[in-house]
């Protein structure tokens, strides 16, 4: 019986084995990039799948670079924005990162601390670094080294409907003389009187996500509060739940409960001219300009006591520690930072060009250009980088929940304290993020 | 108690009302996929959502232009196909050994296998994700196939069926000297077509729509399956509803077609999942 | 003697399956049990420590996780009875063999073959904010214009019900088919006898149909309850747990911890809690079914 069984089995074993072999070959053969061509430097690049115009420009840039550098071949992979950070973190664990990655600025610290990046200080030309905006350097630095550079920075301001401001006889503020808190609140009330539904300000509460931290944390900083104690980056206690932060968020909550804020459900509060004021970024400009024409003006954020502050930072490029050819990777970054290429990107997405040379050549951003204010406020240091600590992912997640609670009328103090506990615990759990020498 | 005409009418009215609830989203998807992008949302609030007019296939060609649809479709087909086919073989063979062969430790091991049935995939997703990450197995087909081939519930369904096949069929063959595998393939399997169909359909439905695991282990579009592909297409700016719905129609039509043709098997398969519970 | 010889062949037959179950279910689950007592983080350069029950303590002090648990319970408490009743109603309506039954059954079952991710995307369009959204327009029509357009998925009160509704839409066909099979297994003679005794249709439903359907009903409720605790796809695609945690769930929090925040140890602790939940639900169901068997 046994013999018979084995014989019959062998026949089947053979069939099963061959099926298994074919499957294994298929499974292992697919899904892995092939980079066997000799003499050709293959540069694998990951970037986020952003707006269609940005994607197109980036793809064109890669094609141009590949044409200009026949011995280097760039292989671009676009990854959905929603899970981008998580994807890179998970890939980093097994050393599966490509040579060059695009990062959202504030997440950079975590990668640098974990040791997944190479510093760029020695890889980029000094003249090129000197040409970069101070905000680009600030956002790309961690522990006194430069880890990433963006091709563009972001701009945050207050878009306004000029005719409505004039009707309400309001002073048009400037970067030198922004609205004070009192002026700003008076402006809201004055505008509300003339407004059919009384809602006069769009804070883009429909955006959610990173926008909350990017767009609304400058309000805290302008009021003297912040997301975390900036000197030591060890605790949010006393800062995020400090009296200044609490006071300004309570005011924001009052604006909402007093029906001054448009919920912007249709994303058209400003373009349909329902509201005369909208907090917004550079990415809103084209659409706003198309809707309001010459009535569109761009204002700095109000000064709530500690000066007018604004957001900064955007997507930037970093070279991974596993990059086989960091020089070639740096060459691609330098290529993206040539005036021509910076303008190709920023003309498509209206973002702030990262180099002074490109600013001077940009019709939107040079002196007298409609978005020159965005450059100016970054240049004089009104931009506050989102906290440069590996704890940033949790800080922003918690701040987003705070804004949600402020918005729905929950208790501000409780929301802040809750967030502080979580942020501080994360920092303690990571022993305050010791550097390589202190671990 | 024969139901009167009034009661039948009432029953049809109820059915019709419910039918609207079930069919409205489907109709909106099919018709919306044929309309210009800006009209989809604009018309979804009125009955024009359900009126076919000014239709075109533009969205479908846009899907092919904007995404790698065929690749995603192949990925889903390949992954699900491997899981279903390998799963049928592996689980049926194991179930047969549990149901029909005499061996030491059988009952103990079988009970252990049954105990595993209550572990939903969500209870092992984290450690599996951790393992796949540190081993560098993410973004492959293998990581989407291998973990799901062996399945305790499938073994149980096969077992329940095999145990009911008359022993006499096998005895004759065994006396003739047929090997165990030969008996399985020539006698058991042909007599167990319904359970093979049921398990195949249940496995297919589970993994064809699987979303949680592939979101964690696929990175770029290379091995991305359809459920992840539609979710990322949905978040890929600009938001164009016509294209998204066209993607959805193409994603679901082949399965709908299979369902309509083999409806009896689908229904029987689903019903069988409960029979022995 | 012949019987003993079967051990070799049996082992050959079960090895692939057992290997798979061991490697991909048992081993990972055991890993989760161990990891839950450490402070492991994906990608952290710091050494891993055993921290005892710290992760569990912080879980139960975490308002977000508590909210996730409550949301799952709420989802189960609403969806399980609603979906079961609807499935039963559909099954009863279809069981009488009226002309057209097959067409209706096809239609009601159709959403089951739709991947949940696609369902979530379609329903995001149905729930579109503003008066153009289909759900808003429908409610406005049904309330004679009283309904004010809402942003369902961003409204803390409406987001969860919105997700519940589409989940029922997608899943009820599955339950219906199981109950339909159960109904067809009830001997016709029982009804005939009851009709002779003069029992009306309500009494037949209460005294024959429901008791006869007891096991399929319990099974259907068990599956729906477990599905309620596995809730993830819709939440991830439509609301990302928001607004204000209104739709967050245990699995969503787990994936957030493991994948988005790299807190593998914390996520493992959540996994253990999730497993205990599922275990207790299953245990309850077993008790009810066994009870029935003893009686019968």
UniProtKB/TrEMBL annotation, chain A:
Signal peptide: none
InterPro entries, alphabetized: SBP (IPR006059)
GO molecular function: maltose binding
One GO cellular component term: ATP-binding cassette (ABC) transporter complex, substrate-binding subunit-containing
GO biological process: maltodextrin transmembrane transport; maltose transport
Alphabetic keyword roster: Signal, Transport
Pfam family of the protein (one): SBP_bac_1
UniProt record similarity statement: Belongs to the bacterial solute-binding protein 1 family.
Annotated protein name in UniProt: Sugar ABC transporter substrate-binding protein
Taxonomic lineage: Bacteria, Pseudomonadati, Pseudomonadota, Gammaproteobacteria, Chromatiales
